Protein backbone atom coordinates (compact mmCIF):
# COMPACT_ATOMS: atom_id res chain seq x y z
CA UNK A 1 0.00 0.00 0.00
CA UNK A 2 1.25 3.51 -0.80
CA UNK A 3 3.29 5.44 1.75
CA UNK A 4 4.22 2.29 3.66
CA UNK A 5 0.91 2.02 5.54
CA UNK A 6 -0.38 -1.52 5.97
CA UNK A 7 -4.02 -2.34 5.12
CA UNK A 8 -4.47 -3.45 8.74
CA UNK A 9 -3.97 0.11 9.91
CA UNK A 10 -7.20 1.26 8.16
CA UNK A 11 -5.76 4.68 7.44
CA UNK A 12 -6.13 7.27 4.71
CA UNK A 13 -2.75 8.12 3.20
CA UNK A 14 -2.20 11.00 0.79
CA UNK A 15 0.63 13.07 -0.60
CA UNK A 16 0.40 16.79 0.18
CA UNK A 17 2.23 19.93 -0.97
CA UNK A 18 2.86 23.34 0.53
CA UNK A 19 4.17 26.48 -1.19
CA UNK A 20 6.81 28.45 0.71
CA UNK A 21 9.17 31.14 -0.59
CA UNK A 22 9.00 30.05 -4.25
CA UNK A 23 9.50 26.40 -3.27
CA UNK A 24 7.07 23.52 -3.13
CA UNK A 25 7.46 21.42 0.02
CA UNK A 26 6.19 17.84 0.05
CA UNK A 27 4.78 15.57 2.72
CA UNK A 28 2.77 12.39 3.33
CA UNK A 29 -0.28 12.65 5.58
CA UNK A 30 -1.57 9.46 7.19
CA UNK A 31 -4.80 9.60 9.16
CA UNK A 32 -6.36 6.48 10.70
CA UNK A 33 -10.07 6.23 9.88
CA UNK A 34 -11.29 6.63 13.45
CA UNK A 35 -9.03 9.57 14.38
CA UNK A 36 -10.71 12.98 14.48
CA UNK A 37 -9.08 16.39 14.13
CA UNK A 38 -9.14 17.06 17.87
CA UNK A 39 -6.57 14.34 18.50
CA UNK A 40 -2.84 15.16 18.22
CA UNK A 41 -1.15 14.70 14.86
CA UNK A 42 2.59 13.93 14.81
CA UNK A 43 4.80 15.99 12.49
CA UNK A 44 7.76 13.78 11.50
CA UNK A 45 11.06 15.52 10.64
CA UNK A 46 13.86 13.37 9.18
CA UNK A 47 17.59 13.44 9.92
CA UNK A 48 20.56 14.97 8.11
CA UNK A 49 20.18 15.31 4.33
CA UNK A 50 17.48 12.60 4.37
CA UNK A 51 13.80 12.72 3.35
CA UNK A 52 10.30 11.60 4.27
CA UNK A 53 10.62 8.19 2.61
CA UNK A 54 13.61 6.84 4.53
CA UNK A 55 13.06 3.54 6.28
CA UNK A 56 12.77 4.92 9.81
CA UNK A 57 10.24 7.64 8.96
CA UNK A 58 8.08 5.23 6.96
CA UNK A 59 8.26 2.66 9.76
CA UNK A 60 7.29 5.25 12.37
CA UNK A 61 4.42 6.51 10.26
CA UNK A 62 3.03 3.01 9.81
CA UNK A 63 3.53 2.14 13.47
CA UNK A 64 1.79 5.32 14.62
CA UNK A 65 -1.15 4.60 12.33
CA UNK A 66 -1.49 1.16 13.89
CA UNK A 67 -1.66 2.92 17.26
CA UNK A 68 -4.41 5.21 15.93
CA UNK A 69 -2.23 8.32 15.71
CA UNK A 70 -2.27 10.54 12.63
CA UNK A 71 1.04 11.79 11.25
CA UNK A 72 2.55 14.01 8.60
CA UNK A 73 6.03 13.10 7.34
CA UNK A 74 7.77 15.95 5.51
CA UNK A 75 10.88 16.44 3.41
CA UNK A 76 12.95 19.50 4.29
CA UNK A 77 13.66 21.30 1.03
CA UNK A 78 17.35 22.20 1.58
CA UNK A 79 16.57 24.91 -0.94
CA UNK A 80 15.34 22.53 -3.66
CA UNK A 81 11.87 22.45 -5.17
CA UNK A 82 9.97 19.19 -4.49
CA UNK A 83 13.18 17.59 -3.25
CA UNK A 84 13.26 13.77 -3.38
CA UNK A 85 15.74 11.22 -2.07
CA UNK A 86 18.97 11.87 -0.19
CA UNK A 87 20.78 15.14 -0.78
CA UNK A 88 22.86 15.03 -3.96
CA UNK A 89 26.42 15.98 -3.01
CA UNK A 90 27.10 17.03 -6.60
CA UNK A 91 24.83 20.02 -6.01
CA UNK A 92 26.24 23.13 -4.34
CA UNK A 93 24.92 23.61 -0.81
CA UNK A 94 23.24 26.94 -0.09
CA UNK A 95 21.02 25.65 2.73
CA UNK A 96 21.53 26.17 6.45
CA UNK A 97 20.77 24.05 9.52
CA UNK A 98 18.38 26.70 10.85
CA UNK A 99 16.34 26.87 7.62
CA UNK A 100 14.32 23.97 9.01
CA UNK A 101 12.73 26.29 11.58
CA UNK A 102 10.81 28.19 8.88
CA UNK A 103 9.65 24.97 7.21
CA UNK A 104 8.57 23.35 10.48
CA UNK A 105 6.55 26.49 11.27
CA UNK A 106 4.95 26.39 7.83
CA UNK A 107 3.90 22.75 8.24
CA UNK A 108 2.54 23.33 11.75
CA UNK A 109 0.46 26.20 10.41
CA UNK A 110 -0.70 24.08 7.47
CA UNK A 111 -1.87 21.32 9.81
CA UNK A 112 -3.80 23.92 11.78
CA UNK A 113 -5.43 25.21 8.59
CA UNK A 114 -6.46 21.63 7.79
CA UNK A 115 -8.31 21.48 11.10
CA UNK A 116 -5.88 19.67 13.39
CA UNK A 117 -6.05 21.26 16.83
CA UNK A 118 -2.84 19.84 18.29
CA UNK A 119 0.52 19.10 16.65
CA UNK A 120 3.32 17.02 18.18
CA UNK A 121 6.62 17.68 16.37
CA UNK A 122 8.89 14.62 16.30
CA UNK A 123 12.41 14.92 14.92
CA UNK A 124 15.09 12.29 14.40
CA UNK A 125 18.83 12.98 14.71
CA UNK A 126 19.55 16.42 13.18
CA UNK A 127 15.78 16.71 12.71
CA UNK A 128 15.49 16.34 16.49
CA UNK A 129 17.94 19.17 16.97
CA UNK A 130 16.02 21.27 14.45
CA UNK A 131 12.73 20.60 16.24
CA UNK A 132 14.42 21.63 19.51
CA UNK A 133 15.63 24.82 17.82
CA UNK A 134 12.07 25.49 16.63
CA UNK A 135 10.68 24.89 20.11
CA UNK A 136 13.17 27.34 21.61
CA UNK A 137 12.17 29.96 19.05
CA UNK A 138 8.35 29.76 19.33
CA UNK A 139 7.82 29.71 23.10
CA UNK A 140 4.52 28.52 24.53
CA UNK A 141 1.82 27.52 22.03
CA UNK A 142 -1.58 26.07 22.84
CA UNK A 143 -1.50 23.92 19.69
CA UNK A 144 1.84 22.29 20.64
CA UNK A 145 1.12 20.18 23.73
CA UNK A 146 4.44 18.33 23.62
CA UNK A 147 7.32 17.27 21.37
CA UNK A 148 9.40 14.13 20.86
CA UNK A 149 13.10 14.04 19.99
CA UNK A 150 14.40 10.73 18.70
CA UNK A 151 18.19 10.32 19.10
CA UNK A 152 18.59 14.10 18.64
CA UNK A 153 21.95 15.57 17.78
CA UNK A 154 24.39 17.00 20.29
CA UNK A 155 27.30 19.30 19.57
CA UNK A 156 30.88 19.25 20.81
CA UNK A 157 33.35 21.55 19.08
CA UNK A 158 36.44 19.44 19.75
CA UNK A 159 34.74 16.24 18.62
CA UNK A 160 33.43 17.95 15.49
CA UNK A 161 36.91 19.21 14.59
CA UNK A 162 38.47 15.78 15.10
CA UNK A 163 35.72 14.09 13.08
CA UNK A 164 36.11 16.59 10.22
CA UNK A 165 39.84 16.02 9.98
CA UNK A 166 39.46 12.26 10.11
CA UNK A 167 36.72 12.20 7.50
CA UNK A 168 37.90 14.85 5.07
CA UNK A 169 41.64 15.14 5.76
CA UNK A 170 41.43 18.86 6.42
CA UNK A 171 41.57 21.14 9.43
CA UNK A 172 38.13 22.50 10.31
CA UNK A 173 39.51 25.72 11.78
CA UNK A 174 41.06 26.55 8.39
CA UNK A 175 37.80 25.84 6.56
CA UNK A 176 35.91 28.07 8.98
CA UNK A 177 38.48 30.85 8.69
CA UNK A 178 38.00 30.86 4.92
CA UNK A 179 34.22 30.98 5.30
CA UNK A 180 34.37 33.83 7.83
CA UNK A 181 36.33 36.05 5.43
CA UNK A 182 33.97 35.39 2.52
CA UNK A 183 30.62 37.06 1.85
CA UNK A 184 27.65 34.95 3.05
CA UNK A 185 26.54 33.92 -0.46
CA UNK A 186 30.06 33.35 -1.81
CA UNK A 187 30.45 29.84 -3.19
CA UNK A 188 33.45 27.98 -1.80
CA UNK A 189 35.24 24.76 -2.67
CA UNK A 190 35.35 22.86 0.62
CA UNK A 191 36.93 19.51 1.59
CA UNK A 192 33.62 18.37 3.03
CA UNK A 193 30.17 19.36 4.28
CA UNK A 194 28.48 16.87 6.61
CA UNK A 195 28.24 13.75 4.36
CA UNK A 196 29.64 15.32 1.19
CA UNK A 197 33.33 15.21 0.22
CA UNK A 198 35.04 17.73 -2.10
CA UNK A 199 31.91 19.75 -2.61
CA UNK A 200 30.77 23.34 -3.09
CA UNK A 201 28.94 25.34 -0.43
CA UNK A 202 28.24 28.96 0.34
CA UNK A 203 30.12 30.53 3.23
CA UNK A 204 26.90 30.85 5.24
CA UNK A 205 26.16 27.15 4.70
CA UNK A 206 29.60 26.17 6.00
CA UNK A 207 29.26 28.42 9.03
CA UNK A 208 25.76 27.17 9.75
CA UNK A 209 26.82 23.52 9.87
CA UNK A 210 30.21 24.00 11.55
CA UNK A 211 30.47 27.46 13.10
CA UNK A 212 30.63 27.98 16.84
CA UNK A 213 27.01 28.07 17.96
CA UNK A 214 24.69 26.43 20.47
CA UNK A 215 21.92 26.20 17.87
CA UNK A 216 22.90 22.62 17.02
CA UNK A 217 23.12 21.28 20.59
CA UNK A 218 19.83 19.76 21.69
CA UNK A 219 20.45 19.65 25.47
CA UNK A 220 21.35 23.35 25.46
CA UNK A 221 18.34 24.29 23.34
CA UNK A 222 15.99 22.53 25.75
CA UNK A 223 17.09 24.93 28.48
CA UNK A 224 16.39 28.03 26.37
CA UNK A 225 12.73 28.85 26.84
CA UNK A 226 11.19 25.54 25.81
CA UNK A 227 7.93 25.56 27.75
CA UNK A 228 6.13 22.39 26.67
CA UNK A 229 7.01 18.91 27.96
CA UNK A 230 9.50 17.03 25.79
CA UNK A 231 10.14 13.31 25.48
CA UNK A 232 13.69 12.44 24.41
CA UNK A 233 14.21 8.88 23.18
CA UNK A 234 17.77 7.55 23.09
CA UNK A 235 19.02 4.51 21.19
CA UNK A 236 20.78 2.08 23.52
CA UNK A 237 23.40 1.16 20.89
CA UNK A 238 23.65 4.58 19.22
CA UNK A 239 26.95 4.84 17.33
CA UNK A 240 26.30 8.40 16.10
CA UNK A 241 24.99 10.41 19.06
CA UNK A 242 26.98 8.58 21.69
CA UNK A 243 26.80 11.13 24.50
CA UNK A 244 23.05 11.83 24.59
CA UNK A 245 22.17 10.19 27.95
CA UNK A 246 25.19 11.82 29.62
CA UNK A 247 24.38 15.25 28.17
CA UNK A 248 20.68 15.00 29.02
CA UNK A 249 21.19 13.86 32.62
CA UNK A 250 21.46 17.35 34.19
CA UNK A 251 18.16 18.57 32.71
CA UNK A 252 15.96 15.46 32.89
CA UNK A 253 13.34 15.87 35.60
CA UNK A 254 10.84 13.17 34.59
CA UNK A 255 8.09 15.73 34.11
CA UNK A 256 8.93 18.54 31.71
CA UNK A 257 11.93 16.73 30.23
CA UNK A 258 11.78 12.93 30.06
CA UNK A 259 14.45 10.57 28.76
CA UNK A 260 13.65 7.02 27.67
CA UNK A 261 16.00 4.51 26.07
CA UNK A 262 15.21 1.85 23.49
CA UNK A 263 17.72 -0.81 24.48
CA UNK A 264 19.48 -2.56 21.60
CA UNK A 265 18.49 0.07 19.03
CA UNK A 266 21.09 1.71 16.82
CA UNK A 267 20.85 5.32 15.65
CA UNK A 268 18.39 4.45 12.87
CA UNK A 269 16.11 2.26 15.04
CA UNK A 270 16.21 -0.46 12.39
CA UNK A 271 14.29 -3.73 12.47
CA UNK A 272 11.61 -3.73 15.16
CA UNK A 273 13.06 -0.90 17.24
CA UNK A 274 10.89 1.68 15.45
CA UNK A 275 7.92 -0.16 16.96
CA UNK A 276 9.42 0.28 20.42
CA UNK A 277 9.87 3.98 19.76
CA UNK A 278 6.28 4.25 18.51
CA UNK A 279 5.08 2.61 21.73
CA UNK A 280 6.86 5.29 23.75
CA UNK A 281 5.41 8.04 21.59
CA UNK A 282 1.88 6.64 21.87
CA UNK A 283 2.15 6.27 25.64
CA UNK A 284 3.50 9.80 25.95
CA UNK A 285 0.67 11.28 23.88
CA UNK A 286 -1.97 9.25 25.74
CA UNK A 287 -0.72 10.67 29.04
CA UNK A 288 -1.20 14.29 27.94
CA UNK A 289 -3.73 16.21 30.03
Task: Offer a quick outline of the entry.
The protein is α/β, with parallel strands linked by helices. Helix content is 32%, strand content 23%.
List the helices and strands in order. Answer: EEEHEHEHEHHEEHHEHEH
Annotation field: number of helices: 9
* Residue runs with pLDDT of under 50 for 5 or more positions: 1-8
In this structure, how is the largest beta sheet organized? 8 strands, mixed
Strand portion, in percent?
Answer: 15-25%
- Cα radius of gyration in angstroms: 19 Å
Average pLDDT works out at 94
Query: What is the distance, rounded to the nearest whole angstrom, between the alpha carbons of the first and last residues?
Result: 34 Å
Kindly name the structural category: alpha/beta
The amount of helix comes to 25-40%
Please state the overall shape, judged from the principal axes of the Cα atoms: globular
Record the strand order, biggest sheet: 1-2-4-3-5-6-9-10
Could you tell me the number of beta strands? 10
Structural overview:
- By secondary structure, this protein is α/β, with parallel strands linked by helices.
- Helix content is 32%, strand content 23%.
- The chain has helices spanning 55-66, 99-113, 126-138, 157-168, 172-181, 203-210, 218-221, 244-248, 273-286, and strands at 11-20, 23-32, 41-45, 70-75, 119-124, 147-150, 187-193, 196-202, 230-235, 257-262.
- It has an 8-stranded mixed β-sheet, with helices on both faces. The chain has a two-stranded antiparallel sheet with strand order 7-8.
- Helix 1 crosses helix 9 (273-286).
- It is globular.
